């Protein structure tokens, strides 16, 4: 299941929008940590430390981040590890297509994190289409081009942390979440 989605600007690492999130009581405590991890990934992409335009980043046995970078914007989603990766990237591509409908000049004027609130509802609407992996539309997406494997790099978050900035509060702030 798609649990968290963040859309950000690559040029400066600013998170622009956040989708409505899935939470239950046991995940409330972890949500802030996952959000910080997503923001860390966005910052790493903006500083050029993560160069692939598509990547899966495994957090633990239960969750992974998938991200897509297109036209100067990054679309990141936190999913259950069991959620089909192909479907997660279809979700990100659908978000990217909807995002392109907005004025690029407007996006460049945003200076405060998460202030593109208009896109939050769109994220929620698209997310609803991807909740159930067994719908006919989602099964069709999974079965399309079955012979082709996804050409997407997968890494573990600990590898990214080790290659990240080695000093400063920014690095330490995110490292606490991974312990």
UniProtKB/TrEMBL annotation:
Residues 6-123 form the Longin domain. InterPro entries: Longin-like_dom_sf, Longin_dom, Sec22. The keyword Transport applies. It comes from the Eukaryota. It comes from Vitis vinifera (Grape). GO terms for biological process: endoplasmic reticulum to Golgi vesicle-mediated transport; protein transport; retrograde vesicle-mediated transport, Golgi to endoplasmic reticulum; vesicle fusion with Golgi apparatus. It is a single-pass type IV membrane protein. This is Longin domain-containing protein. Belongs to the synaptobrevin family. Pfam families: Longin. PROSITE patterns: LONGIN. GO terms for cellular component: endoplasmic reticulum membrane; ER to Golgi transport vesicle membrane; Golgi membrane; SNARE complex.
């Amino acid at each position: 299941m798609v649990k968290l989605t963040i859309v950000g600007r690559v040029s400066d690492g600013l998170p622009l929008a956040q989708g409505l999130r899935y939470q239950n009581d046991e995940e409330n405590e972890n949500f802030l940590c996952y959000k910080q991890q997503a923001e860390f990934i966005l910052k790493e992409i903006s500083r050029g430390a993560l160069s692939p335009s598509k990547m899966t980043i495994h957090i633990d046995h239960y969750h992974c981040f998938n991200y897509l970078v297109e036209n100067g914007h990054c679309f990141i989603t936190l999913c259950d590890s069991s959620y089909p990766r192909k479907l997660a990237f279809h979700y990100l591509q659908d978000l990217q297509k909807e995002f392109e409908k907005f004025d690029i000049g407007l996006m460049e004027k945003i200076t405060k994190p998460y202030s593109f609130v208009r896109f939050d509802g769109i994220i929620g609407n698209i997310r609803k289409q991807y909740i159930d992996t067994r719908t006919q539309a989602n099964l069709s997406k999974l079965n399309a081009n079955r012979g082709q494997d996804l050409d997407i790099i997968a890494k573990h978050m600990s590898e990214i942390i080790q290659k990240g900035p080695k000093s400063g509060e920014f690095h330490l702030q995110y490292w606490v979440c991974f312990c």
